[in-house]
Amino acid sequence: MKIDQLKYIFNLFNHNASFKLCEEISSGHINDTYLIKTKTKPFYILQRINHEVFKDVPGLVSNKVKISNHLRKKLDFLTEKELQNRVLSFVITKNNTPFYLDSNGNYWNMMIYIGNSKTYETVNNKEIAYEGGKLFGEFLNLTSDFDANQLIDVIPKFHDISHRYSQFEDALKLASSSRLQKANEYIKFVESQKNEMLKLQRLKESGEIKLRVTHNDTKISNALFSKNNKGLCVIDTDTVMPGIVHYDFGDAIRTICNTAAEDEKNLDLVNFNLSYYEAYKKGFLEKAGDSLSPIELKYLPLGVKTMIFIMAIRFLTDFLNNDRYYKIKYIHHNLNRAKNQFKLLKSFSIEMDNLKVGSKNSFL
After folding, report:
1. Phi first, then psi: what are they for 108, rounded to 5°?
2. What is the 3-state secondary structure (H, E, C) of the chain?
3. Mean pLDDT, residues 98-126
4. Residues 6+ apart with CB under 8 A from 81
């Protein structure tokens, strides 16, 4: 996008800064994000939210702002400068709205840039896993008293396993005989796991597990760290919506504890890193443990298994659908991704004997 256009949009927001230059931040896969450098600090993050992916952008922005405002109130003992490092601070437009809608139907929102910080794409030591666990655990703890019904479902049925099974079964009906044959072993496995994989959803629907605010994209790159590797702030809250704690805990572990890349073909390299699990869990429970019920704690390991399985079935479904959703680099890319996640699931299941399940104390 042209600099003049970005400068124009930037100046529609309520600030006293003078635009100097901008840099595109390319780490995201959905939105267009720009670092706006001004003549004086703070700098700003200007973001175009992809309305093709997110169908209710005003609702999405409302979710983000509500949660940030709630976090600021819970941390009001901090100074304003400290708050700006700990919580995303959104900037309203000069028309007093939390976003700007341009003539092309694009939605823009802006927040204050958190300087002297860094992110990690992958975890390479237990310290980062531990600090990441603390950050996401604190996020869940601080939002545990927020009424999740005030939030919209940004992506309906995102972690709904019944929905994923329905998509899988539809794909089976239309898949070519060649792809069915290549995936046969994994198709049988998916069908054999249905009862266990539906367990968390049933507990949620019955009300036995609390509906709460969840982040829903807890990969380590959405945790912001200080220069000395201490957790600062949870970022990228586009997917904040109602959910259960097992979604956030499980998906964080899924992404942190795989010893190989998500599409690694050599399955001998794919294993579950128990030491990273223990480090993340320790940090997570230090911050979130008091807000979790005994039944939530009991099923945290099942949350890990479920989130790995959801990713595996999504890759497998896309392979059966001739690769319509995920971008591929070669013909069996999605099948290899699915195999990778199924191997991770197997490795995690082997480690289950090392995981004490059933009470809060067993996690400490």
Report:
1. -125, 140
2. CCHHHHHHHHCCECCCCCEEEEEEECCCCCCEEEEEEECCCCCEEEEEECCCCCCCHHHHHHHHHHHHHHHHHHCCCCCHHHHHHHCCCEECECCCCCCEECCCCCEEEEEECCCCEECCCCCCCHHHHHHHHHHHHHHHHHCCCCCHHHCCCCCCCCCCHHHHHHHHHHHHHHCCHHHHHHCHHHHHHHHHCHHHHCHHHHHHHHCCCCCEEECCCCCHHHEEEECCCCEEEECCHHHCEEECHHHHHHHHHHHHCECCCCCCCCHHHCCECHHHHHHHHHHHHHHHHHHCCHHHHHCHHHHHHHHHHHHHHHHHHHHHCCCCCCCCCCCCHHHHHHHHHHHHHHHHHHHHHHCCCCCHHHHC
3. 94
4. none
Q: Phi, psi at residue 180, to the nearest 5°?
A: -60, -40
Per-residue pLDDT at 363: 42
pLDDT digits (tens, 9 = 90+) for 203-245: 999 999 999 999 999 999 999 999 999 999 999 999 999 999 9
Cα(319)–Cα(313) distance, integer angstroms = 10
Say which residue the tokens 């972690």 belong to. Answer: 159
- Give the mean model confidence (pLDDT) for residues 49-77: 95
Q: Which two tokens stand for residue 250?
A: 């499980």
Nearest of 194, 179, 193 to residue 335 by alpha carbon: 179
CA distance 85 to 69: 14
Could you tell me what percent of the chain has a pLDDT over 90? 90
Angle CA(144)–CA(147)–CA(231) in degrees, nearest 5?
35
Contacts (Cβ under 8 Å, ≥6 apart) of 290: 141
First and final C-alpha spacing in the chain: 49
Closest CA to 295 of 159, 204, 197: 204
The single-letter code of the amino acid at 247 is: Y
Strand 117-118 to 223-226 pairing = antiparallel
Only one residue has tokens 């499980």, namely 250
Rounded average pLDDT over 155-179: 96
